[in-house]
Design brief:
This protein is mostly helical and 63 residues long. The protein has a domain of 27 residues. The N and C termini lie far apart (55 Å).
């Protein structure tokens, strides 16, 4: 029996940087709607917990 060794490198997230200002607000909106924005796991968990009580959340609860 032979074992295969996985030598493939994991996919690395590569940010897409702007190289020039976008011409109008619609272009900016499209850019940020399609952007992959990294979020820490702890932040994602906190947002999910707040989602359950979203009607009760105000700015004073966010730290």
């Amino acid at each position: 029996m032979t074992e295969e060794i996985n030598t493939a490198k994991p996919a690395v997230w590569t940010p897409r940087y702007l190289t020039a200002a976008l011409p109008h607000i619609g272009a900016w909106t499209q850019y940020f709607r399609s952007a992959d924005i990294p979020v820490l796991a702890a932040t994602a968990q906190a947002l999910e917990e707040l989602r359950a009580i979203e009607d009760d959340v105000d700015a004073n609860m966010l730290t």
